[in-house]
Amino acid sequence: MKYKLGAAVAVVSLMCAPAIVVAGASSWAVVTGTTYNHGDQVVNGLDHSWTPVELLHDAVTDHALIDTTPYVPPDPCKHIAEKWNRTVAHNPTHLNKFEHLFVKMARHNCKITFVPGTTNSDGTVNLNEVAPKP
């Protein structure tokens, strides 16, 4: 009986590990956007276990195109994702446009998928690549 309890605790612990730790440096992770700080260029979000995550969006962040068909109307995140794709296609390095979209994604608690980079001394994680997540 005690082995079953130990196994159950181990499974729950693994399920609650932060997405960034589980994802690794070359895998996509997902957070739910909560706020965007213009001054610091930081996207604040919550991972799958509701752990706060701070993601640094800067000039070296790649912005990925996404498939918007999985969104079900009237999801406001679909409209934001469509604007995201237009911005990636026409202005892929225009940070102000992406900042505006991050504010909207946070306001509507849209999911954000990303490839994490290194962790900075202030705890923020560099975004290697980022996109909205249906």
Which topology does CATH recognise? OB fold (Dihydrolipoamide Acetyltransferase, E2P)
Q: Specify the overall morphology.
A: globular
Biggest beta sheet summary: 5 strands, mixed, barrel
List the domain count as a whole number.
1
Beta-sheet strand percentage? 25-35%
Order the strands across the largest sheet as they lie in space: 1-2-3-6-5
Total count of strands? 6
Task: Please state the second-level CATH architecture.
Answer: Beta Barrel
Give me the strand/helix succession: HHEEEEHHEE
Explain this structure:
It is a single chain. This protein has helices at 2-15, 19-23, 76-90, 95-107, and strands spanning 29-37, 42-46, 52-56, 62-63, 111-119, 125-133. With 134 residues, it is α/β, with parallel strands linked by helices. The chain has a single domain, classed as Copper binding periplasmic protein CusF (OB fold (Dihydrolipoamide Acetyltransferase, E2P)), CATH 2.40.50.320. A hairpin with a 4-residue loop joins β1 and β2 (42-46). The model is unreliable at 2-25 (pLDDT under 50).
What's this model, at a glance?
The protein is globular, with a radius of gyration of 16 Å. The chain has one domain (2-133): Copper binding periplasmic protein CusF (OB fold (Dihydrolipoamide Acetyltransferase, E2P)), CATH 2.40.50. The chain has helices at 2-15, 19-23, 76-90, 95-107; strands at 29-37, 42-46, 52-56, 62-63, 111-119, 125-133.
Key terms:
disordered N terminus; globular; OB fold (Dihydrolipoamide Acetyltransferase, E2P); 134 residues
